[in-house]
Amino acid sequence: MNNFEYKQATDAIDATDAVAASEDAMFIAGGTNLVDLWKYNLVHPKLLVDINHLHNHKHITELENGGLRLGALVTNADTAYHPLVEERYPLLSKAILAGASPQIRNMATNGGNLLQRTRCYYFYDPDVPCNKREPGSGCPAMEGYNRIHAILGASDQCIAVFPSDMCVALAALGAVVNVSGNNGERSIPFTDFHRLPGDAPDIDNHLHHGDLITSIDLPVRGFAQNYSYLKLRDRHSYAFALVSVATALELDGGIIRDARLALGGVAHKPWRMHEAESVLIGRTADEATFAAAAEVILADAKGFKYNNFKIELARRAIIRNGMMALNPETQLPGAQPSA
Amino acid sequence: MTTIVLNVNQRRYSLQVLPWVSLLDALRERLKLTGTKKGCDHGQCGACTVLCDGKRILSCLTLAVMKDGSDVTTIEGIASGDDLHPLQQAFIEHDAFQCGYCTPGQICSAVGMLNEGKARTREDVKELMSGNLCRCGANTGIINAIMEVKEGGGLE
Ligand SMILES: Cc1cc2nc3c(=O)[nH]c(=O)nc-3n(C[C@H](O)[C@H](O)[C@H](O)COP(=O)(O)OP(=O)(O)OC[C@H]3O[C@@H](n4cnc5c(N)ncnc54)[C@H](O)[C@@H]3O)c2cc1C
Ligand code: FES
Ligand code: FES
Questions:
Q1: Domain count, chain B
Q2: Which residues contact B153 (CB under 8 A, 6 or more apart)?
Q3: B118 and B148 within one domain
Q4: Does A339 score more than 80 pLDDT?
Q5: Deepest in the core among A40, A126, A127, B19, taking most CB within 10 A?
């Protein structure tokens, strides 16, 4: 049996102490990923520590430097619809609202979203090998049905992708993750939070056992004038991205003064590349410019039998989303392609 | 075993549950409120949607112990006595179901969506109801029913 005990933590120290004390203890927040994985017999906690009552981490507050702090236990829905997020960081709002369903977003928390596991079918099937689930057992996705898999940053051990939408916007915006652990507190820049599979695909990120995400900080600049999130998937809504793109621009006349570009659904982490952003800066915001950035970000892309199409799809999505960022108000619900 | 209190449809229930019992199983198996349906049990269909402290959530991915003290509304608590809720009436009028299995989740989800107040257009309603699948394909009727109640001034 896959049974566990349950405890409600009263504050961050109580929570981290309880989880750090046992290898088999886990935090539970919204439960939308953890309970699902538990039902599939993929996680085997002996103790679940409920962090939903950590009241210090259930708020969205303005920072002195002009940025915004998102509490780790605020739900994805409350974050997306928060007036300050909608006004200053609409890219983040759009990305969150493109993910999962309203019911799930009412449950899912900001901290949990960063730690959701891959949706690789082989990872979910305990009857087949998987290096992420059982290191050293093999990766059937390489030769198998790899439609949803990585085109960037994969290793010969694992080609799984990280499925979050919210995190693509957080990477583009340059967020910082605040963590509280046994060794005190630390802050991790968003693009350093998740890791590539390399030869340890079982490890998704740079947290240690017992580390609690307490909040996520957004920097001052939110690119609220010109931004767009585009999510392409196998059905219209309520499905994970095959490819998604977050684009944020600062324009002066028709010239790009600053740019952010991140991809989702294509790698083991949200994919942001400064070289591709540099290509955009100083140029006219048009299709040719976005195509040039796509060229750079996808230069090392490598497809497999069933996901080769993602390379061309990503290229076109980058161009389309760049143009969509020029008219954010035309964006359709669910981050669908618009004019 | 943990003793929890759930206020379901404005009735107070005290029950003992093991930590891994989902809110869905607690409602169906323990409280015999079988209106809430188990479709996938994995968060993928919306059949198990209930309102918890006023918000629509998936009861299959919720542990009952985590909702100690909460107010839960299920499909059994949507009508006022013998008077159907406007959404229930609209679902009948618009043929918004065939087998009916997804219906309790659809209606609870629609109540939650109208309370949230974020949907302006029909496209918004479709997007914000996309967490509820209908295998019979009654979606057009479902969206028509919800639009009628929404345009007619919403709830009660
Ligand atoms: C059917 C379905 C469709 C979905 N579609 C999408 C989609 O299209 N796009 C998308 O982005 N997401 C999607 N999701 C995933 C969803 O967004 C995540 O499950 C959710 O964000 C996880 O948050 P949670 O609070 O529920 O985490 P939990 O399930 O509670 O926890 C997840 C993990 O994080 C750990 N954890 C949680 N909080 C903390 C913390 N503060 N500090 C340290 N560790 C913590 C837990 O121990 C656990 O390991 C979907 C989920 C489902 C079920
Ligand atoms: S039974 Fe809960 S979403 Fe399907
Ligand atoms: S009416 Fe049969 S599933 Fe919707």
A1: 2
A2: none
A3: yes
A4: no
A5: B19
CA distance A201 to B2: 37
Residue A308: give its domain's CATH number.
3.30.390.50
User: Strand, helix or coil at B42?
Assistant: coil
**B127 to chain A: which residues are within 8 Å by CB?**
237, 333-334
Spatial distance between the Cα atoms of B37 and A293, rounded to a whole number of angstroms: 48
pLDDT tens track for B76-106 = 999 999 999 999 999 999 999 999 999 999 9
Q: Which of A47, A103, A121 to mutate to test the interface with B (most CBs of B within 10 A)?
A: A103
- Domain of A193 in residue numbering reads as 55-115+162-218
B55 touches A at CB < 8 Å: yes
Q: Which of B18, B63, B116 sits opposite A35 (nearest CB)?
A: B63
CA geometry: angle at A278 spanning A272 and A279, to 5°?
105
> Tokens in use for A11?
């504050």
List the structure tokens of A86: 């909608």
The 10 Å Cβ neighbour count of residue A39 is: 17
Chain A, chain B: beta-carbon pairs less than 8 Å apart? 88
Last residue of a domain, one of B77, B107, B123: B77
Which pLDDT belongs to residue A2? 87
Q: Which of the four pLDDT bands, split at 50, 70 and 90, describes residue A264? A: very high
Any atom of ligand 3 within 6 Å of the Cβ of B92 = no
Question: Contact at 8 Å (CB) between A334 and A173?
Answer: no
Please state the ipTM of this predicted complex: 0.97
Which residue type does A214 have? T
Confidence grade of residue B64 (pLDDT, cut at 50, 70, 90) = very high
B146 touches chain A (CB under 8 A): no
| Distance, CA of A169 to CA of A164 (rounded, Å) | 10
Q: Which two tokens stand for residue A284?
A: 């006219």
Chain B neighbors of A238, CB-CB under 8 A:
130-131, 133
Contact (CB<8Å) B22/A32: no
**Residue B155 pLDDT:** 47
C-alpha closest to that of B43 among A266, A81, A240, A150 = A240
Domain contains A71? yes
Record the pTM.
0.98
Question: Do residues A268 and A195 make contact, with C-beta atoms less than 8 angstroms apart?
Answer: yes
Query: What residue type is assigned to position B61 of the chain?
Result: L
